[in-house]
Amino acid sequence: MKTIRLLVVSILAFQLSASLLAAAGGAVSAETLAGTRWAFKIPSGGAGWIGFTKENGATNALLLWGGGHPLPVAVATKDGAVEIRRTTKSKSKKGKDVTRIDVITARQGGGNTLVFEMRSVDGDGKVIGAPVNFTATRIPELPPAPDLSKLKFGRPVRLIGGDLSNWESMNPNDYNGWSLKDGVLTNTVVFPDGTKKRGANLRTVDKTFKDFRLTFEVNLPPGSNSGVYLRGIYEIQMADTHGKPPHYQNMGALYGRIAPSRAVEKKAGEWQTVDITLADRHVTVVLNGVKIIDNQPVLGCTGGAITSDEFVPGPIYLQGDHTNASYRNMVLTPIAKELR
Length: 340
Prior knowledge:
Layout: H1 2-24, H2 30-33, E1 37-41, E2 47-55, E3 58-65, E4 71-78, E5 81-91, E6 97-108, E7 113-122, E8 127-138, E9 151-153, E10 157-158, E11 167-169, E12 178-181, E13 184-187, E14 202-204, E15 212-219, E16 225-230, E17 234-239, E18 271-279, E19 282-287, E20 290-297, E21 317-318, E22 325-338
Antiparallel strand pairs: 1-2, 1-8, 2-3, 3-4, 4-5, 5-6, 6-7, 7-8, 9-22, 10-22, 11-14, 12-13, 13-22, 14-21, 15-18, 15-22, 16-17, 16-21, 18-19, 19-20
């Protein structure tokens, strides 16, 4: 009996030590992180993502911090942890250049998690604020591309109807420039006299969408920049980029991640057709009848996402904080079942 009690005590002590080690963060190296991708919530709010790759014997990383698109960051292994350096430059209210360096230290957490500590300094090395901590979750490996010919669809949902009851503002403090007339949903934040207001993004009241096919028409004025977010996570870019070569920030791109294979956008002011299929973290985009993204894997959320968690249902949201844009005939058809 005494031996059994000692064994139980030893097991409990081992479990406690493991828990404390996980809480404190275990050792990890840049090399062991190569090929992995991680999702997290930024301490100040917003979606974050980091992906590690190995090229020519060196581990590199791309970091998405809220808005914009994934950018290269410096990565090194120091004292059993991975150090990530993120440098940003901006202008102060007085017009002076301001440099901020975020030094993010990553250690192994419990299970498929990394524990981060971020310390920030300015260009002169002066500490900015207090250290902050957050946790990232490893993103599971992507499945094979689904066979789109075998997808089974449910009942179509018309998102743009006779009124705005299907939609709600995401930014109550910003100007709501969205209006609906004759079946056309329009965002107006740039006015004829040249003035501009910071507009609100718009999302569907229904936040239960998973995988689906989404079709609609869009009309973009000259210089327009908008976007359609799938489940509030992945942005398909809507922009006036007629006449420009394919780019991951152009019309029809998965913003910042996948560029269109061809440039087939129409001139500003013309109605364009968009057909998007999101299935098993793979995306297909058909613009004006031409397939420009063909069942490509999605590595993570895009800038401006509501969340970095790719496994939760969400709304369709329309970017309204940049310029004017109009949408009509928007229909979402959920994927009911996939046959492999």
